[in-house]
TrEMBL record:
Species annotation: Chelatococcus asaccharovorans
Keywords: Signal
Signal sequence segment: 1-22
Keyword Signal carried by entry: yes
Protein name: Uncharacterized protein
């Protein structure tokens, strides 16, 4: 009987996960050409966390909304306008997951416990002043939980949520900023 190396199994699992995520990350996306992105001025930036509130995560939702809005406001400061005919940048957060273990890797394979990643998922839209969707991007963000700080800090969960929110906003900036 031929044995299968751990490296082969890991490569196979990684390839399967890449294929699985490739479909859901780009599904329904509408790109914004760079020359168009440069001309857009945003009158409004909104972050909708109602999906999280509906799941009973009101405290988390509030923190995510505040941190994401603050980062987006900063990132798009040079494209803001007070004109009523400006576009709207809308972010809709649909999911958040904080891993139960912070501070290390559970192993390379799913049966080893996987890694300790936190996730934030949602959609970002650029909407014209007439209500037309000019661009849409689905974003599934995964970050190592320990990136936000040491596991033993008393406010580590809040720090992890803020870290996810700021990085999510940076991806929105990457896709829609001129």
């Amino acid at each position: 009987m031929r044995s299968v190396s751990r490296r082969t199994v890991t490569a196979g699992v990684a390839a399967a996960l890449a294929l699985a995520f490739a479909g859901c990350v780009s599904k329904g996306d509408i790109s914004l050409p760079p020359d168009v992105a440069a001309t857009i001025r945003y009158a409004t930036i909104t972050v909708d966390v109602s999906a999280l509130q509906a799941k009973g995560l009101s405290d988390w939702a509030s923190l995510i909304q505040q941190a994401t809005t603050a980062q987006l406001t900063k990132a798009f400061a040079d494209q803001r306008t007070t004109a009523k005919n400006g576009a709207t940048l809308q972010v809709v957060i649909t999911g958040v997951t904080l891993t139960s273990f912070v501070g290390g890797d559970g192993g390379d394979l799913p049966m080893d416990g996987g890694s300790s990643n936190d996730y934030l998922e949602g959609d970002a839209f650029v909407i014209s002043s007439t209500g037309e969707i000019l661009a849409k991007k689905h974003i599934l963000l995964a970050l190592p939980a320990e990136e936000a700080g040491a596991w033993y800090l008393p406010n580590i969960d809040q720090m992890r949520l803020v870290n996810l929110s700021k990085n999510f906003a940076r991806w929105v900036q990457h896709y829609f900023h001129s």
